[in-house]
Design goal:
The complex is a heterodimer of chains A (about 575) and B (about 240). Chain A has about 575 residues and is an alpha+beta fold. Chain A contains 21 helices and 18 strands. In chain A, the strands form 6 sheets. In chain A, strands 1, 2, 3, 4 and 5 form a 5-stranded mixed sheet that branches. A 5-stranded antiparallel sheet of chain A has the order 7-6-18-17-16, sandwiched between helices. A two-stranded antiparallel ribbon of chain A has the order 8-13. In chain A, helix 12 runs parallel beside helix 14. With about 240 residues, chain B is mostly helical. Classes of the chains: A alpha+beta (about 575), B mainly alpha (about 240). At the A-B interface, helix 3, strand 2, helix 10 and helix 20 of A face helix 1, helix 2 and helix 7 of B.
Amino acid sequence: MSPVAVRQMRVHVAGQRQVALGRSRQRLMIGVMLFIAIVAILGLRLADLALLHDGGNNRQRNLFAALVPPRADIVDRNGVELARTFDAYGIAVRPRDLVSDPKLLAPRIASILPGLTPQQVYAQLTHAGKFRYIQRRVLPTDAKRINALGEPAIVLEREPERLYPNLTLAAHVIGYTDVDGIGRAGIERAFEERLSREDMRSKPLMLSVDSRVQQAMEHELQVAMDKFSAIGAAGVVLDVRTGEVLAMASLPALNPNAAGKGSMEARFNRATLGVYELGSTFKAFTVAMALDAGTIRSVGQMYDCTVPLRIGRFSINDTHPFKRYASVVEILKESSNIGTAQIAQELGGERQAEFLRRLGFLEPVHIELKERGRPLYPLNWGEIATMTVGYGHGIAVTPLHLATGYAALVNGGIWRPATLIKLKPGEKPAEGRRVFSAETSVLMRKLLRLVVTHGTGGKADAPGFRVGGKTGTAEKAVGGGYARKSLVTNFAGVFPVDDPRYVVVAMLDEPKGIKETYGFATAGWNVAPVVGKVVARIGPVLGVMPDETRDVDLAPLLAHVREEKKK
Amino acid sequence: MVAGAMASALACYTVSLRVSAERADVESIRRQIASDLRDIRALEAELRTRSRLPQLQRWNDEVLAMVPPTAKQFAGSPTMLVAYAPNQPARPAAQEPVVQFAVASEAAVPMEAPIRTVAYTSGPRPAATAPARPQPLQLAAAKPVKVTVEPVQLAKVESAPAPKATPKAAPKAKPAPKPLPETVTAALAAVETPAAKAIVKSETKPRKAAEAAPVRLAGLSASLIGEIESAAAAERRGFRKVAMQ
């Protein structure tokens, strides 16, 4: 365009030009201000990052923060790990990003991952979703091999997994978590907050359980369970002075690493959730109550055991009837229902219920776990109920109840709640309450020892460990009556009797008689040996010195036992 | 002037370079530590899983077949320990072998010492005398699961009874202190037996101590019994410490 033309145009558009110029200046200003604002924001952000967020420190903290597990470990009283969180591999796929042929890929993946069929893998690979898990909790070596397949759509996820290194050991105590890492049973459930809280996670939770004792208990119970074809078993080892639970077992065993695969039966905690009529083990309580209440003035007091006891339409029988008058010592030694029923009758229902309430037998057992069974006891505590409760029928409690009760019986008469948390050194045990007098407790120790040395519990003796205890055999209540063939046998033992340290309770659910036991399925034959073997194994571990030259003096009690004629 | 400024600038730059290099090193070491800690955790998990107690139990059931120690395998008192000697004082004193008792260290060891152990060695025995068969002392922790247990717990004796003729009689008898025989053949052939290994287990240098300070004794004097007893007390304290952990 020639200058002339431009000049002409300028003249022509003079008015418009002024307006346009003004507008463009405005726009320019806005642009400049935007730039300045952006630069200012960036500058401020930079200053903020440089000055306020100390980048280096932050990174270092993250470095070590990653080491704090997302959930606290659980350890036993000696620091042996029972549960820990561990970064496991999960194999997932994004089906939409798949490049290779799923028909070829599926068998190759299935050949690496045991327990998956090519069809299952194929179904996941061709799924319509965005993200599918093929398998979770994969071994690191398998994960590496899958990674080597080179399929970009396959994702290796590192996800925290709860690992229980000892498999079935103490499974019912520890419990398990669900796939999201939330406790669903046992300690994992009861201490959910403690285990997952940010400030507590780095410190492991120390239980009172001793894994060696736990292993001994579980093993011996399992052996007995297999031998006598029992459907279940439970066992508890309790420190009588502090109420700490050193072992608590429930069989059939459960693997908490795959809790979902366990049966209902396996997940059921028989030690705290199952309530059972425990039978004769209650007789020791009845005798102690009567001694304490003063209705038994001497252990030589005689009771009429000549004939079965008839109360209304009920008749109370003995397996080995005395057919004569028997002393209290004999009644306990031979586990006489007839005699104990009379002792309970003299004591009276009211006092009996009060004693049982103080022993904690009329409420769910005191322990941290949430799986606690409610005891069953007579609503109408009449005379017949008093007599049957006296020998452990008509009242159903958990094996842990029995253990805490026996602890109170022998530790000087103080009942304490059971605990699964180890006491810190110097920490006082939970406050207890007095149930029996100290004198009663001392006498009961001797009586329990006598049951083992001279009575029904002979097979529970571990030489040198001075075991005392009482057998219990009860018929299972089935549909309003008792099933004569399905028994619950149990044994409550204490050692060493001269200075009680530990109570050992073992229970078998529906053991059968075998040839070796001459067909008997009673406690003295099947569950008492379990306690004997467990004591022999755990005694040295727990620092109880076996000594065959030491024992309590039973002579004053044996004076009240009449020599039976040898058959 | 310019040269001076250049030199100082260079010096400053070098210093700052070295500082930053050092910092980077520290950072990489920290990263290394963090990754090692992670590895330790992973390896621990693996180790715990492999050495799980049910597995040890299975090995024991199938292969090792170890059983818990019985009451007889525990030495109730130092005197009882001495009574396990293979040679009994039935023979004339003249033929007595010389008993060597090597004490780990001299009596000056303070009572606060957590563990003090005595090592016994048998003296040269006359080859002609066939020693009585020693009691098999399986004091070592019998179960693999009981690794932390101190196998021997020496109980206190009220009086110091003289070692009796038969090993079995010794623990049961608790007589008033009898006149001690002039020479006691209570040599412990224990060093070869597992028992001795268990006894000296907690000691740091049992053999060296035995060589260094052999105390030749013609018999068991009352002071020696006291010595052994104090060692037993120390042992017991150590044991309790272990048991309480």
